[in-house]
Amino acid sequence: GQQVMQIPQYQHVQEGEDFTTYCNSSTTLSNIQWYKQRPGGHPVFLIQLVKSGEVKKQKRLTFQFGEAKKNSSLHITATQTTDVGTYFCAAAGGTSYGKLTFGQGTILTVHP
Amino acid sequence: GAVVSQHPSRVICKSGTSVKIECRSLDFQATTMFWYRQFPKKSLMLMATSNEGSKATYEQGVEKDKFLINHASLTLSTLTVTSAHPEDSSFYICSAREVVAGLSSYNEQFFGPGTRLTVL
Prior knowledge:
The structure holds 2 protein chains of 2 kinds. By secondary structure, chain A is mainly beta.
């Protein structure tokens, strides 16, 4: 089945530092989504990338989809303590069911 | 955004009993809902896809008779963990996909708050 590898597993940063998490797939993806899960919470949708080479920004967050549609990244500029949580990428199967395969997630800790 | 509720939020049961978890889409209709299992500090593992009016589609390695799924209406799916054992203890999360007319490629999923199951 479809697999999505996500690194790093953990990332500790000082408040104000940047953060990046990466996702890679061995197969071409129809689209990729990013979710954030706060400690004790449930995943919340952040964004969906569909086009090759697509770049989208949400305030301090920048999302990229690779040219080959096999990799993606999420970059946070000048992290804040509110950024703490686990960030997941999820590959959509492209079927009418919208089935998602999640990456392992990156647990972000921000030290004040 | 759309809201998905899940009930109960937490349940503790004895080994051998069955537990039913409900997942509801509150302000939209969901022909498809998904059930995930998550271990501490781990990723979400898709267990099954719940289809309204038809049988659920289970992922490889997930026992159909162990995890019974019923999608009785466009706003409700239930997961029943039958004859639960301590190894079934986990965080179970459902999600629903809101179908947006004209946007068949739009796959945003809305997640319920999760149910933490502890089997003693």
